[in-house]
Amino acid sequence: xxxxxPIADIATIVDRARDAFERGVTRSVAGRRATxxxxxxxxVDHEQRLLDALAADFGKPAIEAWVTEIGFVLxxxxxxxxxxxxxxxxxxxxxxxxxxxxxSRIVREPLGVVCVIAPWNYPVxxxxxxxxxxxxxxxxxxxxxSELAPSTSDALAALLNDLADPAxxxxxxxxxxxxALLEQRFDHILYTGNSRVARVVMRAAAxxxxxxxxxxxxxxxxxxxxxxxxxxxxxxxxxxKFLNAGQTCIAPDYVLVQPSVxxxxxxxxxxxxxxxxxxxxxxxxxxxxxxxxxxxHRIEKLLDSGTTAVGGDTDADLRYIAPTVLTxxxxxxxxxxxxxxxxxxxVLTIDSIDDAVAFVNADDKPLALYVFTEDEDEVDRVLANxxxxxxxxxxxxxxxxxxxxxxxxxxxxxTGAYHGEFGFETFSHRRAVxxxxxxxxxxxxxxxxxxxxxxxxxxxxxxxxxRDQLAKLRNRLRRD
Length: 480
Ligand code: NAD
Description:
Layout (H helix, E strand, L loop, with lengths): L6 H16 L6 H17 L1 H12 L3 H26 L3 E3 L8 E9 L2 E5 L7 H12 L3 E5 L5 H14 L4 E3 L4 H8 L5 E5 L2 H13 L4 E4 L5 E4 L5 H13 L11 E4 L1 H19 L15 H10 L4 E4 L3 E2 L4 E2 L2 E4 L16 E6 L3 H9 L6 E5 L3 H10 L4 E4 L20 E2 L4 H7 L1 E9 L14 H12 L3 H14 L1
Parallel strand pairs: 3-4, 3-6, 4-5, 6-7, 8-9, 8-15, 9-14, 13-14, 15-16
Antiparallel strand pairs: 1-2, 2-18, 7-17, 10-13, 11-12
Helix pairs in contact: 1-7, 2-4, 2-6, 3-4, 3-6, 4-5, 5-14, 9-10, 12-13
The structure holds nicotinamide-adenine-dinucleotide.
């Protein structure tokens, strides 16, 4: 169980982090590397404590917890350490002819003090990965774990306090503490969670004109075509859906499948569930529990939609909901009205891929979209006519694990992105620097603006940059 940070202390804690930032504690790249290396060691040292906390909070299976939380953070730190020297280099950019002699570059600067607010479902990864990016970019950080994973919040606070870094503050607590935290002035806020609270965060940020990254959720569809490899699609969908008992922001929320393969897909997903978790998933050590009673009862009500084709068992005392597949579901049923965020998979039939596209587009832009087909033309049609935070073709969840891909939503599923260099960029200010030689100082720009100066100025500004001319030529060649 965690100890909530006294509300009266929150301003002082954030001020301390700001003071450390202003004293330049976070600036040196060597110092950032040292902090990240110490953080890595602490994660390794605290591994068992974190795994135990995750198991205590909602029965997160140890191997899932290692892969999606501990290992995820370690690889993220390793990736950051491997590339940080390159990311921090000033980026030389061209300088137009009319601004010569001179040079231009973009310099990545830390923003200041950034606030990271994490949810409960991947409570380690979703706190530490943004924190790593913020440190890499040279910021001080105020980190707030979720109160809904209280043991993990406690373990994370212990780990970060062990860092004893004046530029890293941990605030523990729920709505009251987060409200007090959001009253402070930050230079960036990265919030992960639901879109209702995202609006609260954005309103609070507006008070200080603080930019935000909002990592949200929504209903992420999986489209299964009649041309899919069903054996593989069924396994990949079942794995992605029932990992963490469906409490994954990018889990396939529902399936849209063509009628000719509907029955086989449902049967194969049922087979995959037995293969993964046995005939009684309640006894499987590899299947997580629902995080709290409120979420348990919310998800349990969704089981009334459609027909239960697989699963459906529940146990309120253990907050257990079996991996469940619902068929004969229509769009107006409760299970299709909200993000499920639990181990319940509605399977709906759609006549064609174009109908699936129309179905997806009738809703908000999802965080993830999955399409299973062996037909490249269908892949192209889905990609060209939909929008989502990320996409996997013939896979699910993998878009989140590649540090070379940005992770973030679009529209209702989020604003901004992070992971790898994208996280470094999110927490950096791109400062434009132009340096001009003083060797010559033509008077053309200075008043008084005589007729001849005006003529010269117009001509000078209209000289096209050779790079623009080259690009135009390339475009023409490509079109012809
Ligand atoms: P949650 O309840 O843990 O809340 C997230 C954070 O918001 C917590 O730290 C909490 O203290 C804070 N909070 C809650 N109410 C608040 C309020 N009124 N004012 C200020 N702060 C408040 O998590 P959740 O929102 O239930 O998370 C689940 C949602 O998050 C789902 O929609 C899921 O899809 C989404 N999610 C998105 C991602 C992503 O990376 N895009 C990852 C995980 C979860």
